[in-house]
Amino acid sequence: MSNAAHRSNRVLVVATIMLATFMVAIEATIVATAMPRIVGELGGFSYYSWVFSAFLLAQSTTTVIYGKLSDIFGRKPVLIGGILIFLVGSLLCGLAWSMMSLVLFRLLQGLGAGAIQPVTTTIIGDLFKLEERGRVQGFMATVWATSAVVGPLAGGIIVDNISWAWIFWINLPIGVISIIAFMLFLKEDVAHKQAKIDYLGSVLFSISIVALLVMLTETDASAWILLSLFAVFVVSGILFLAQERRAPEPIISIPLWSRRLIATSNAATLLAGMALIGLSTILPLYVQGVLGRSPLVAGFTLTMLVVGWPLAVMLSGRFYRAFGIQRTLRVGSLMFPFGACFLLFLTPDSSPIVAGAGSFFMGFGMGLISLTSIVLVQDSVEWSMRGSATSSIIFSRSLGNTLGATVLGAILNAGINHYAGGEAAAGLHAALNQPTGLSALAADPAIRAVFNAALHWSFWGVVVVAVLTFVTTWLIPVAHGRKSGGAAVASEATSH
User: Are 147 and 25 in contact (CB under 8 A)?
Assistant: First the structure.
């Protein structure tokens, strides 16, 4: 019996995947818009950041686990199970009576969301040949782009006209339709086998990654808490590696993750995620606080990132046929540091167009790096390992986002403390915590100059990470001149 998903109903399956992806993609932006209203009604502002962190922690931690489960039990039951958990979490979030209860229900939401992106991406790898995948992934990229625009608008309309609970309950009809469509249209034959799930490995992996992510996101905690988290991360990580080496069905296959193609692809994706989150978090600060432009203009500069990414993905098929995958990957990776270098030339008198151009080129480069890494990794393994391999890429990007936000935020704070004295630095931090703080900074030439210099430290950090991404992509083994098919990459990957 074949382990490959049937290729029938592919258009309907892709449409359903886009619907399910949109449900998760819009969640971040729509919740961010509604949170001030939610805090106003529930109280508990101290838990504000944990409404986002709980969701992301659960989603990041379970990505790899769901990938492995989809290899054992098939894509459809794992995906539908993840959507059901997400919907239960969404229902309960709308019924939350306090910020603490909302955080717990967001954690449940994240546990379900962890299945959706890795498993749907794996299904695309099952259904489409390499040369077809670029166009399909282009559609997926437009879903994320659309959610970035629709989310804030929908969130504003919902909280202004009806209860904030509907920002969560709006997922219910979308999720139910997705489940029904997957049951009807996604056909797959999975060879049934006796499999022992590595529960201990799953628990140890979750403990280790949660400790790492909390340590990275809560950098203001006391030293003994951070040291305790680090100790938990190290000890549980060592126990996890020992467990995986002896488990018959490990959650993470050490030999698989050690393959040169998968290891280098994961490294490049992690670094790219670091650079991209740096751009997304720091560039709006510069456009508003130094250039003195409105939040709308700052949003436009990041919109160019959203334009460049899906455009590169949609053109990737043509690039593969014309130049081969190796040249496409390397030229795409060169666009990444090229776009980052635009940031270094920004001055208080620069046009936002310069910032937008840098965003576009970084987005274009990221589109080629991300898609090419996924298709190479998917083509290098058989069906029974494709879920694990795909989830490793998505997990690496998520971990890169967390690392990047922490590291580049620390660089920004170091720059502020370097260029401003104690009182000036405190004043600058205080201004940043005010709703109109960025516009006030732009109106004060002295503070504006300090902020400009400090942000350039972070820009240099983005450039360095982007260059490391470029270097790492050259280490990814790709058969020279390869344009289509999977055999060349498979032999290249398994030979290292």
Answer: yes
